[in-house]
What does this fold into?
Amino acid sequence: MNTSQTEIDVTCTVNGRSVTVRTKGGDRLIDMLRDYLHLTGTKEGCSIGECGACTVLMDGLPVNSCMVLAGQAQGKEILTIEGLKHEDGDLHPLQQAFIDAGAIQCGYCTPAMILCGYALLQRSPRPSVHEIKQAISGTLCRCTGYVQIIEAVTLAADRIQTKGEK
Ligand code: FES
Ligand code: FES
It folds into this structure.
């Protein structure tokens, strides 16, 4: 039997919305997000778990969606970059901070970097530089040199804590 043709219904929560997606055996989480749900903010780089561009959050933790089978998302909560924006269209403080700190150049790593930052701030609202470096260490940026990315996460944490931004 060619398992790649086996259809699998995957029910999970994506960006706060319950979805059921009919996938094919062998489909990865990134395929489900980009090809079936059209959430193209999640980027594919290396496809082998090295670059981190495809990072999304699964039950609050960063995962490389190119290395996760779609079926493994069954019953899970998935957060992609599209889920961070507020319903009124306002950007999440992390998204705004990346803009303000000049932490985006080509932007290919940006969704992953922001989601790694988001996961970090959930568990450590005022992270040290060391914590930020650890949190983004699984994602490669070929453009920025990382300094502005670290500044952006620090800036977002400060705005959330001192100004109550959400
Ligand atoms: S595309 Fe998934 S880690 Fe590079
Ligand atoms: S901004 Fe280009 S890869 Fe990070």
Remarks:
- Residues 41 and 82 are 7 Å apart (CA to CA).
